[in-house]
Amino acid sequence: MVATQETIDKVKEVSSTYKYGFVTDLEAEKAPLGLSEDIVKFISHKKKEPKWLLEWRLKAYKKWLTMKEPNWAMVDFPKINFQDIYYYSAPKTKPKLNSLDEVDPELLKTYEKLGIPIKEQEVLAGVAVDYVFDSVSVATTFREKLAKEGIIFCPISEAVHTHPSLVKKYIGTVIPISDNYYAALNSAVFTDGSFVFIPKGVKCPMELSTYFRINEQNSGQFERTLIIAEDNTYVSYLEGCTAPQRDENQLHAAVVELVAMNNAEIKYSTVQNWYPGDKDGKGGIYNFVTKRGNCLGKKSKISWTQVETGSAITWKYPSCVLKGDDSVGEFYSVAVANNAQQADTGTKMIHIGKNTKSTIISKGISAGKAQNTYRGQVQIQKNAKGSRNFTQCDSLLIGDKCGAHTVPYINQFTPNARIEHEATTSKISEDQLFYCLQRGLDTEQATSLIVNGFCKEVMKELPMEFAVEAQKLIGISLEGSVG
Amino acid sequence: MPLLEIKNAELKLDGKDILKGLSLSVNKGEVHAIMGPNGSGKSTLSYMLAGRDGYELEGGEVFLEGQSLSKMEADERARSGLFLAFQYPVELPGVGGMSFLREAVNSRRKFLGEEELDHLAFVKEARKVASKMFVKDEMLKRAVNVGFSGGEKKRFEILQMAMLKPKISILDETDSGLDVDALKIVSDGVNAQRNEDNAIVVITHYQRLLDYIVPDFVHILSDGNIIKSGGPELALEVEKNGYAGLINAA
Questions:
Q1: Domain map of chain A by residue range?
Q2: Average pLDDT over residues A55-82
Q3: How far apart, in whole angstroms, are the C-alpha atoms of residue B64 and residue B51?
Q4: C-alpha pair distances (Å), A288 with each of A26, A69, A277, A372
Q5: Nearest residue of A to residue B90 by CA position?
Q6: Can you tell me the mean pLDDT for B235-250?
Q7: What is B171-230 written as a DSSP string?
Q8: Which chain B positions have a beta carbon within 8 Å of A431's beta carbon?
Q9: How is residue A203 annotated by DSSP?
């Protein structure tokens, strides 16, 4: 299998002579520590971006300077020094990759450990994978097959050059640069991410998948993904993240924007397994993510499914803005917080169009001394007549030192709509554990089984090959939490 | 060597003596019935044998094929071939019956050094056994014990027993909540598993179960001890005179 020309170009680009003559040395694989206008320019120049994008970044940077970090989430962490973070780093991969066999074996080994056999995925699952290793994509596959359908699936840094009008038209339209502190930061310094465009009438023939991984110590990871589904289309996108152990906290502030036109459906699935820190909460990733989808078209549908097991702190609310009449938003979430992890996650469903529907199923699992908060907003605007929402928030507690919190915000501006909210809190009972043990399962198997049963409604929304991995992950995340 | 040997078992719950030096030997191929009034310690005995947390012995010892159980956790005992059919089988929401069974069976197989069954082989085997127990496929697809009727729960217990092929099975009030038809199905299921290499201990309040699962020995449990042992005729005596008569005579 031959690596794409883009990949080779990308690697060459990184190591090519640097023409812009400021900030840092020519062969720099890393921008200097901290954030300034120069750093924003460095990133933009490194990527040979057009002027409009640089200006957009600078606008975001200036906005960011005027903003304050949000403090309403139920999470507690020391103040981040944003000048103590590297905002750009390229992977140390040897150039001239002619096939995946030539990808850094260390990298391949890591993926193997994570249970992601690249070849098997390519061959068996038919998954097109856009690997992001640190900030630059190093391997891209299945592009040709997708190209035949007119589908664009590439690093966003590349789309900026190959499809500038599309990127320019949509970037920042779902999540404006001023949306929130971390979104503004991302807009200023994002390094890469995925770009997906599904042209009219096309059902994407395979699951699109990107695996993210933080590698470089102290390098902030600022992914930016943009998915556009035109009329009468379908696409399923999988995102999985893992990160190796780190002592220092690493900031991850991604932005994902989805746009669905008439009768378009986007299914976005995430398995998030960033390093959660040690038992005492030392280290671990700060995962401050802004994800939102605009259901612009009639009968459009956006479905978020997430399994969040990692990160020291999760601050994440994948949302749907239901503008098109009869559009549908869904949010299925499993959030596991063990040891000292803190998760404040949920969704926003903003009903604007008529007869819009949303479903929220949230399963929060808390163990150790972790705090797990569901925070969700359901808003039915004045004109959203006939709209419906169903929300179900279930919390499972393991042990007696953890916490589960449910914070629903419900705003209804038309009487002609229906909102339902159900919430439960339960514990794994001794009876359940003993029953499983008596059948020969060990404590960890039993916990995993019971917890996966608790999450079943969400897990069944995951694509098959992801579901198996996610089930294992939930078990692993809770190891040692019982007994 | 007895298959199961209980020697002078003493156990307290909340500071109260529940088992007071109870002894019992069960050999391969035997079926024992332990009968007793409410509060005599029947369920405590079954939890103690299964190794439930909080049911550790204060004195005495239990041996399975000569091996002491005192240091073995509940799951180790189960994998070693000790099975408890629960009086009140526990619901596991969202946990499919088939996958639960498979995890259990494969844990036991792994312990025995046998190859774990893959999904297809397992489903085939489970269906075969289930059909004998009049357990429908549909029931195996449902979450374990969730929304099961009393009879379904007990049938599922015995199905698990049949799949796990334990050396020693303890049936705790398996007849409770069963109508006559269900009782017959469950009993047939148990009887089909009787052989020369295993043993069954039936714990029951009423004699009627013993019409279907005919024991070799009957023991009367009262106030934490076995006060009388005999053959099947002892159960009939209970039926006729009640426990009071036997307890007073002892």
A1: 5-477
A2: 91
A3: 12
A4: 32, 11, 16, 15
A5: A432
A6: 81
A7: EESTTTT--HHHHHHHHHHHHHT--TT-EEEEEESSSTHHHHS--SEEEEEETTEEEEEE
A8: 90
A9: B
Give percent above pLDDT 70 in chain A.
78
**Rounded Cα–Cα distance for residues A362 and A374 (Å):** 7
User: A437 and chain B: CB distance < 8 Å anywhere?
Assistant: yes
User: Quick one: tokens of A152?
Assistant: 């664009």
A73 neighbors A346 (Cβ within 8 angstroms): no
Measured distance CA(A203)–CA(B218) in Å, rounded: 70
pLDDT at A108 over 50: yes
* Residue A27 CB burial class (10 angstroms; 0-12, 13-18, ≥19): exposed
- DSSP conformation class of A221: B
C-beta of residue A226 within 8 angstroms of C-beta of residue A183: no
B106–chain A nearest CA distance, Å? 9
pTM of the predicted protein model: 0.81
Write the burial class of residue A19 (CB in 10 Å: 0-12 exposed, 13-18 middle, 19+ buried): exposed
What's the rounded Cα separation, in Å, for the pair B50 and A434? 9
Q: What pLDDT, on the 0 to 100 scale, is given for residue A90? A: 64
Cα–Cα–Cα angle for B38, B43, B47, nearest 5°? 165
- Torsions phi, psi for B24 (to 5 deg): -160, 140
Q: How far apart are CA A193 and CA A460, in angstroms?
A: 27
Three-class secondary structure of residue B4 per DSSP: strand
d(CA B72, CA A74): 42
ipTM exceeding cut-off 0.90 for this assembly: yes
Report yes or no: B141 at the A interface, CB cutoff 8 Å.
no
Q: Which residues contact A53 (CB under 8 A, 6 or more apart)?
A: A44, A160, A167, A168
According to DSSP, the residues that pair with A316 across neighbouring strands are A289, A345
A421 pairs with which residues across the strands?
A391
CATH no. for B4-242: 3.40.50.300
- What is the Cβ-side half-sphere exposure of residue B180, based on CA atoms within 13 angstroms? 1
Domain boundaries, chain B: 4-242
Q: Which residue of A has its CA nearest to B170?
A: A438
CB–CB of B74 and A429 under 8 A?
no
- The answer to whether B74 contacts chain A (CB < 8 Å) is yes
**For residue A374, which phi and psi values (nearest 5 degrees)?**
-95, 125
